[in-house]
Design brief:
The structure holds two protein chains of two kinds.
Chain A lengths: L2 E3 L4 E5 L4 E3 L2 E3 L4 E8 L5 E7 L5 E3 L5 E5 L4 E6 L8 E9 L7 E2 L3 E6 L1
Parallel strand pairs in A: 2-12
Antiparallel strand pairs in A: 1-4, 3-9, 5-6, 5-10, 7-8, 8-9, 10-11, 10-12
Chain B lengths: L4 E3 L2 E4 L5 E6 L6 E7 L6 E7 L2 E5 L7 E4 L6 E5 L8 E8 L9 E2 L3 E5 L1
Parallel strand pairs in B: 2-11
Antiparallel strand pairs in B: 1-3, 3-8, 4-5, 4-9, 5-6, 7-8, 9-10, 9-11
The chains are: A mainly beta, B mainly beta.
Amino acid sequence: AQSVTQLDSQVPVFEEAPVELRCNYSSSVSVYLFWYVQYPNQGLQLLLKYLSGSTLVESINGFEAEFNKSQTSFHLRKPSVHISDTAEYFCAVSDTDSWGKFQFGAGTQVVVTP
Amino acid sequence: DTGVSQNPRHKITKRGQNVTFRCDPISEHNRLYWYRQTLGQGPEFLTYFQNEAQLEKSRLLSDRFSAERPKGSFSTLEIQRTEQGDSAMYLCASSTGLAGADEQFFGPGTRLTVL
């Protein structure tokens, strides 16, 4: 069985400062990894994903995440945040040999202040 | 708008009543998923359809819950004899089904409040 742990429930950060959101998973098989973002009063949107290949993946709005198999982690980073990055971020994992069932973490609320 | 839509967006009901939610997936998507999200938690998987076939149900889905996807298009989730513990956001998602773990596109959710 899979599990996903997001170690921080809330991360306050100042505008233009860097942020890192931690995600660790456990699984007995190979996995695909995802980060979703939920802006206030909106549905979840895919931010980025790791399926195979390069372990560093990037989004179009400056976020990046690195898959670390030995540490079973998929931490999300952004070097300089904007007010508009205020949202809840969810890490999700799916077994590579399954039909695509996602296991989500509990989420990390990012609050960016001026 | 070609995204996933859900109706209603909000539902307030009294304990013991039945409620039904609807999800319209992206039109060419074969897979449809239902999740439940409570405050401070990530989405929890409830059930999954491949076209019209319901292929997996979570243990969270008690016998008071039933989901259908007639003709492999829209889906409904019904909760009978609602309880206060059913209060949550119910999310629907869809995906193409062309790969083992392709991107799931989420709807805005239906927020259920059971009084």
